UniProtKB/TrEMBL annotation:
Keyword Lipoprotein: no
Keyword Methyltransferase in record: no
Domain of life of the source: Bacteria
Pfam families: GrpE
Subunit structure: Homodimer.
Keyword list, A-Z: Chaperone, Cytoplasm, Stress response
Gene name for this UniProt entry: grpE
Biased composition, class Basic and acidic residues, residue ranges: 1-17, 24-45
UniProt-recorded name of the protein: Protein GrpE
Predominant location category: cytoplasm
Family: Belongs to the GrpE family.
Subcellular location: Cytoplasm
Region (Disordered): 1-45
Reported function: Participates actively in the response to hyperosmotic and heat shock by preventing the aggregation of stress-denatured proteins, in association with DnaK and GrpE. It is the nucleotide exchange factor for DnaK and may function as a thermosensor. Unfolded proteins bind initially to DnaJ; upon interaction with the DnaJ-bound protein, DnaK hydrolyzes its bound ATP, resulting in the formation of a stable complex. GrpE releases ADP from DnaK; ATP binding to DnaK triggers the release of the substrate protein, thus completing the reaction cycle.
Amino acid sequence: MSKEQEKQNSENHKEQLDQEMNDVIEKDVEGNQAEADKETNQEINELDKLKNDLQEEKDKFLRLFAEFENYKRRTSKERIELFKTAGEEIMQVMLPVLDDFDRALKEIQKSEDENMLKGVELISNKLRRTLESKGLAPIAVKAGDKFDADIHEAVTQIPAPDKKLKGKVIDVVETGYTLGDKIIRYPKVVTGK
């Protein structure tokens, strides 16, 4: 072999070694890059998972907070309603006493005893004012008012003495009462047909 061939072989061999070395370095760099990418992806996945967990916890907190606010609002409303109608049972028991006072006043007015009338009126008015201060109010109904099934309780129907009174209240048999906004006794009325 000549020196040129040896030199050529040596250069080829050197190029081949350089190529192999470059391939090894490239593979090593690619491996390191792949490993770095893998670690970065894991960190990104962990970060995304933590963000998702945080968002879920925020959602849970907001829902719990909203439920608590609704609970507070509902119990507050129930408490106010309870205070408004706390004495409903007592008021309903007192209604017949008010009816008895009305009947007694009508009968006493027929007699001519002024002192008895004044005494019974004083007691009746005092009882009514006391009950009204606690929220009891009579439902205003008079003859000639239009009959409303949501407010009135029809006891009976009679032929109307006048055509204008058809479907209207002719007589009030028993006064109705409200406690706050709630009707605790419907007025009993006679209607015209």
